Each structure stands twice: as structure tokens, then as C-alpha cells.
Amino acid sequence: MLWAAWYFPQFPLQIAAPMLDAFCIIEPDQTIAFCNEQALAHGIKPGMSLASAYSLSPTLRARPRDTALEQQALQQLAAWALQFTAKVHLADPQTLLLEIGGSERYFGDRQQILDSITEGLQGLGYRAHYAVTPTPRASQWLSRNQHATVITDRIALKQTLDPLALHTLPLPPALLKRLLQTGLRTLNDCFMLPRTGFAQRFSQTLQRQLDQALGKQADPRAGFSPPLQFQATSDMDADVTQSEALLFPAHRLLWQLQGFLRAHGKGVQQWRLLLQHVRGEPTEICMQTVELSQDSRQWLQLIQTRMHNLHVTQPVRALSVHAECLYNLTPVNASLFLSTQDPTSWQPWFNCLTARLGREAVSGLQAMEDHRPEKSWSTQRPDDKQTIHADRNGNASNRPLWLLDPAQPLGNHQQRLCWQQRHLQITQGPERITGGWWDGQDVERDYFIATDKSGVLYWIFFEKSYWYIHGLFG
After folding, report:
1. What's 230-328's CATH class?
2. For the chain, what are the domain ranges?
3. Which among 103, 69, 80 is positioned nearest to 6, based on CA atoms?
4. For residues 464 and 473, is the Cβ–Cβ distance under 8 A?
5. Architecture of domain 3-21+60-214 in CATH?
6. What is the pTM of this model?
7. What is the pLDDT of residues 20-76, one digit of tens each?
8. Which of 98, 189, 260, 304 is a plausible cystine mate for 184, CB 3.0–4.6 Å?
């Protein structure tokens, strides 16, 4: 087995929306826990009191640390990471553990899966350090000290762990203080002491963790179980009044939804975007596609289209994405022979059109089993699966797509049929069409194809001693 640990050193900052001003996260004792680059440029550092920080930057924006929100965000990342491996674990509040040994062949090689995870995290707006070793404990510790460390040999693992400083490890403060007071500074100092005496004097738990890091003792981990439905929230650190400012957190949430669906082999056709306001009911934006999808890029384009016409009347404090109805997504089989025709190429165009105009403003045509031309079609939702495919007799080429409603009477000039001062010459026909006795609108017509001097084709019929034009061919 091969374990990869991803450590997020600035995780509380990264789950917040990007800030252009100086910004920090504070602990309950009013000390700085994390600060962004703008705050660092003013001389603000972690561990500094909030009062001292305000003296350096009066415009500093501070937010209390929310460990529950951090845990929720890490769980959302774990659900996203399941698309790479089935074994994902929450190692600590800032670290994810992934067993990638079983996924290497699927992604091509070890570096390919590591690059894919790194690019995915960057797309979500996260920066992390990773380490890969044969044991989860060693990967967890090394990810806090070294970036992009990959070790597959246990002898090399011991040599890499030896110089690690104890103060960089996630140890209880009281235990770390006792170790440092005794003169222990690195892991090698701990490895050199007798195991029994070390465990009795300091901690049996720490001795067990040392053995687990070297692979001398089993290190069972509780696997992460994702929810059956997707729900993710992104809180804003300031009230947002411009719809364009919502695109970044929306992109992060949609990327997480994509990873969640890929991990489960699912797709969605409908999902909801909720804009939480400071006061009043949330604004709900329902998005729907004509096909099952797990493509965040397509969703973001649709959101951009909807946001273009969205007027935010109240400040937005939080953004959330909900997807309740998940369906098994069947992969599309590739053709044996190269083909330039994609039967689904119209779907992105339709999704974009409905996002801009509204779903009720766009409809398709459905063929009906009726010989009367005006009754042989109806409007339908383009994603309706109950489409009736007509033209079973192969007569579509003899029927125009442009029908007049209602049919217009033809004139008679010098014993010749005419329409809009154009003389018509019959070239094909007749075709007898009858029907409609069951609904009281029965017809008995003889249809012909006619043309004028310019070559335009007309669909005309004769009924009850009168001539009519019913359609034009394109």
C-alpha cells in the first residue's frame, strides 16, 4: 500500500472567499492564528494579539476561527477526493489521507495521479503539501515538513523521518513541552531511546505512533463515508452585491459536485444554487440540463449566463449548491469508426439557450401519429424521452417543415393557380389525405407540390372545390 497525505497549512484562510485587503483568522483568546499575504505585508504574524495587529493595519478584517466550518469543508474535500481512490481518511483537521497504490494503474502511473489531485485542488482554490510513503502516519508527518516527498523504501523512510523536528508534528502541547524540556528535538532522538522506558515516561500513544510511522505496527484508519446527496456551502467574509463576485465560490462548489459525482459514478440533470442573504428568504436558482452530466465547466457556463441577467437586490452572505436526485451515469461507447457527427452536440447549445431565456421559452417539436398535417406535430420539452418517431413510411421528403396556420386560399388568374401574384405550376401529386372523423374535424384533401418561376416549392391541396396553400419547402 502507498499512502499520500495532503496537508493544507492555510486551510482556514483557503475556505474563505479571496480577500484583497488584509485579513486574518483569530483564536478565542484574540490572537492571530492565520493571516493572508496582505496582512503579512503590514507586519502582522500568527501569534500576535489582535490589538497589536490593528495598530499595524487599522483596516484589518478579522474573523473568529470556526472549527465546525473547517471540518465541514474538509469532509467536502474528502467526498471530492473519492474520485481518485476508495480509501480516503480525515487524518487531522488540516490533512487528508489517500491510499493511492491501488489507483496507479487506472491513472497511468504514480506521478499522474499526484498531478491530477494537485491540479484538482488548485482548481478548487486550495494549496497543499503532499508526501507519499508506505505508512499513513509517516505521510501525515512528512507532509507538514516537506513538499512533494515520495518514498517507497522503508529504509529510506527511516532516514527521512529521523531529522523531523518534534515541534512540527501534531502532538498535544503538554506532551511536546515535556519532550522539549527533556532535550528531545527530533524523531531520531525518540527512536534512540529504549521503547519500554520511553512509553512509560512519556506516552504509550506516542510510542505506538512511532512504530506505526516505521511500519512496525498496524495503523487502522476509519474510512470516510460520503453522504448520499450533495450539499456544500461557501460562506462570504463580506456582503456581496455584485453577481460577478459569486462566480469564484460557485466554481469551487461545482467542482466539488463534479468530484462527488465521479466518485459515485453518478450524474445529475437538475441542481439548485441558493444565495443566502443577510435578511429575508434565499434566492433560489434552479439549473437543469437536457442530459445527465458531471461536467463542472458546463455548469459554470450556465451559471455565468444566468448571472448575467441576475440582479442581486440584497447582499449575499453565503452560497450553497444542492443536488438531491442522483442517477447512474452510463458511459457513452465510442464508435469503432471515426465519425464527425456527434448525436449529442446540440445539448450544450440547448442548455445555454434555456439558461438565458428560461426553460419555458424553449420547446421542441414532437411528431404525432395523425395523417392531418396540422395535427401531426405538437410542442414538447426537448428532453422528453417519450418522443414518437413518425415518418414510418418514408414520406418526410414530400412534407414541408413550414406550414401556414391556417391554410391560405389560392387565387385563380387566367385559369392558373396563383399566390401573392405568382403563378404556380403543379409538378407532383396528388396525395390523398383523409382522417379526423373521430374528433369531428375530418378532412378529405388531395395534396400537390407546385413551383413558381423562381423555383420555390409549395405544398397545395384541393378540398371541396377550392384550392389552398398549406406550406412552403425550404
Report:
1. alpha beta
2. 3-21+60-214, 230-328, 386-472
3. 80
4. no
5. 2-Layer Sandwich (3.30)
6. 0.67
7. 789 999 999 999 999 999 999 999 999 999 999 999 999 999 999 999 989 988 998
8. 189
